[in-house]
Write a structure and sequence with these properties.
Blueprint lengths: L3 H12 L1 H10 L2 E7 L4 H4 L11 H4 L3 E3 L9 E3 L16 H9 L6 H6 L9 H8 L5 H9 L8 H9 L1 E3 L2 E2 L6 H10 L10 H4 L8 H7 L4 E5 L13 H5 L6 E3 H10 L5 E5 L16 H17 L6 E7 L22 E5 L2 E5 L11 E3 L7 E3 L2 E2 L5 E2 L1 E2 L1 H11 L6 H5 L37
Parallel strand pairs: 1-8, 1-9, 4-13, 5-16, 6-7, 6-8
Antiparallel strand pairs: 2-3, 4-12, 9-12, 10-11, 14-15
Bound molecules: 2-acetamido-2-deoxy-beta-D-glucopyranose (4 copies).
One 2-acetamido-2-deoxy-beta-D-glucopyranose (NAG) binds next to helix 10.
GO molecular function: hydrolase activity, acting on ester bonds
Organism: Echria macrotheca
Pfam families: Phosphoesterase
Amino acid sequence: MPSPIRIIAAMVVAASPAMAGNLQTNIKNVVILVMENRSLDNLLGGQTTAGIENPINNGPYCNYYNISNPSAGQACSAASDYNSVANDPDHAVYGNNFEFYGTFTPNNAAIAAGTLVATQKGFVQEQIRLYPSVAKATIGKQVMNYYTEAQVPVLTALVKNFVTFNHWHSDIPGPTDPNRAALTSGTSYGHGSNDAAFSSHGLPQRSIFQQLSETSHTWINYYDTAGGTGPDAEFYNWTYTSGNTGRVQSLANFYTAAAAGTLPEFSYLNPSCCGVGTNSMHPSGKISDGEALVKKVYESLRAGPQWNKTLFILTFDESGGFHDHVPPPLAPAPDSLTYTASTPGGSYTFPFNRLGGRIPTLLISPWVAKAHVEQLGTNSAGQTVSYSASSVLRTMGTLWGFSPFNPRVAAAPSFENLIQATLRTDTPVTLPSPASFTRRTAAKEFIA
Ligand SMILES: *[C@@H]1O[C@H](CO)[C@@H](O)[C@H](O)[C@H]1NC(C)=O
Ligand SMILES: *[C@@H]1O[C@H](CO)[C@@H](O)[C@H](O)[C@H]1NC(C)=O
Ligand SMILES: *[C@@H]1O[C@H](CO)[C@@H](O)[C@H](O)[C@H]1NC(C)=O
Ligand SMILES: *[C@@H]1O[C@H](CO)[C@@H](O)[C@H](O)[C@H]1NC(C)=O
């Protein structure tokens, strides 16, 4: 936790018009790449940079195989994870419930009152329930282990050169489409699963895409045509009814535009998902293929004519059922909509009043500090709180002059305080190549 003195300083800094001015003057192009299904303790769990609270710096963390029976044994976080995690962990709303609270149907009122706090102890038991034929030791490694710095050299180089958030959560403790909607509009509009509305342009709420078009700012949603996520701009009915489908383009166009210096003000990138051969880092997709995508996007921006005005945000949709030791905090509901699902433990209604798991998020730009680890943020009410996907919309509102779309976004801390007044000239031109995972190395569980 930051000291009280640090919190006061952060409040002053976050509220400063000078910081908003740095953002507005220095950043003309925002690029956001939203990867898939990894928690901070999983993907950045082996990063040794001070200030990142993770297994290598603060662990190990352990989960019992059976929460009700500790004598049955436990699995603890340890170095090295699989390139390809074969058994995708549970990340439904109720799966997240079990992982965080040890029950599919936690008492919402007690959570809201602060008397029920997540223990983060149910990840292993839930994975065993889903995959009863897989050895418990393998299960434990799948959800508790973490990637070493050597296993994710691209991310390690980015952490050592740019800003990493230590307290950034997904907006919703559930799956990808609701979280991708929350990132781009501040709400999933009551959706808690990847239902048909997302693929049939059924979301009616205002998105950042509509907001930017209506205020004469440019955007393109670039997507990997191999498919599997989004394209997220197409969730929204507006994109269709306003004739803006031409702004949804192949990722190949992104690289061409980056080289030519013709990127729009807002570039939103969808990776491919979710099996081997895709690049979002979603199980069973390989971590090394995701690293190759991140490297290519970074190097394209770094070599392009727009780099000196660019802010590249690398983030994830949600934590994907991988262990993280930080309980998700409460947050205001964006609207009055709820989501009800039947679970293995009975019906459960989610009121969208808390965040999801902690996920990796980095700010990459010649305008951010080198190797800075950001702790909690400060919202406009002066509260010291965790960052979340809504922090993107809050900050873009400062950059492009629009009001928060709803109470969740209004209460999210923005991050213009992380944009500096001086251009850095020491940002790396290239990043390391992804690690080659082979069965030959010390940890034979690495899947090549
Ligand atoms: C967990 O342990 C409890 C208490 O011993 C037992 O009743 C229950 O069946 C166990 N659950 C599983 C999934 O093994
Ligand atoms: C994670 O991956 C699954 C695919 O297995 C996908 O359905 C889901 O939406 C992704 N995101 C989350 C949060 O689960
Ligand atoms: C999209 O909006 C149009 C016009 O308001 C409406 O007719 C149509 O039913 C909507 N489509 C969906 C999928 O909601
Ligand atoms: C970015 O700024 C640096 C330092 O002023 C300058 O050397 C470099 O040429 C600029 N790059 C581009 C692409 O304008």
